[in-house]
UniProtKB/TrEMBL annotation:
Domain of life: Eukaryota
Full protein name: Replication factor A C-terminal domain-containing protein
Entry-linked Gene3D superfamilies: Nucleic acid-binding proteins (2.40.50.140)
Chain intervals for the UniProt region annotation (Disordered): 189-234
Organism: Cuscuta europaea
Length: 234
């Protein structure tokens, strides 16, 4: 994944979040429409304690695999990538809330990187104690795009929520790093599009909302490094 893919949020680029009709958390929780994109204004709270959790998954589709080794080459049966490589994928449980209520969801790898960039945190995610991030976000409001997703067979929840996009409202200052994001497709820095100071990445992670990855097939190791789910030295 190149830098442009990692830090450009295609949905936010073209959807103009501040122009979208906003819903409330209670609207999202009460809906059963799995095709609709809900835009909400919400605060964000991290529910994890300790370092940001991760699992080992496919580098293409982010599906979890039964391995504790990064750098394993394999063919992914989920997305069909014949050159799949096992890699570290982050998952951060969060609570989104407004005046009508709150809901819990998960930020996956790309959303985690987006958020850290928005907060001007230039540290590898596995070196960050997620409980310390709450001080950074407690006074901030986010525009969040959500969809309702059907839980998998291992879930106890009746519905899950997929985070499609994160951004700041235009009237809330963003970090200097976000302001320096490369502008593409002739979007001028001082235009309404440029002022949105968008950052982000692809959304493949959001398809996989479950904390447990049971009964996954074991793959044969052809090459590997960084064995075990240990946080690197920071």
């Amino acid at each position: 994944m190149n830098t442009e893919q990692l830090y450009m949020d295609s949905l936010v680029r073209f959807a103009l979040p501040e122009m979208q009709s906003k819903s409330h958390v209670i609207d999202v929780k009460s809906s059963v429409d799995e095709t609709r994109v809900f835009w909400i204004l919400s605060t964000l709270r991290f529910l994890e304690n300790g370092y940001i959790p991760f699992y080992i998954g496919c580098n293409s589709c982010n599906k979890g695999i039964n391995s504790t080794v990064e750098g394993v080459h394999f063919q992914c049966l989920n997305c069909g990538n014949i050159n799949g490589v096992s890699t570290k994928r982050f998952r951060l449980s969060v609570e989104l809330s407004d005046a009508t209520g709150e809901l819990q969801t998960i930020l996956f790898t790309n959303e985690v990187y987006k958020l850290l960039r928005m907060l001007e945190i230039n540290i590898n995610p596995d070196c960050i104690n997620s409980s310390h991030l709450n001080d950074k976000v407690k006074a901030l409001t986010f525009i969040v795009a959500l969809k309702i997703v059907r839980p998998n067979i291992h879930s106890k929840a009746k519905k899950n929520f997929s985070v499609l996009s994160l951004s700041f409202p235009t009237d809330i200052p963003t970090c200097s790093d976000a302001q320096s994001t490369v502008v593409h497709d002739n979007v001028l820095p001082n235009s309404p599009e440029g002022k949105r100071k968008l950052i982000g990445g692809e959304n493949n992670d959001s398809q996989y909302k479950e904390a447990h990855l049971p009964d996954l097939p074991t793959i044969a190791t052809t090459s590997g490094k960084n064995k075990g789910k240990k946080h690197q030295k920071c």
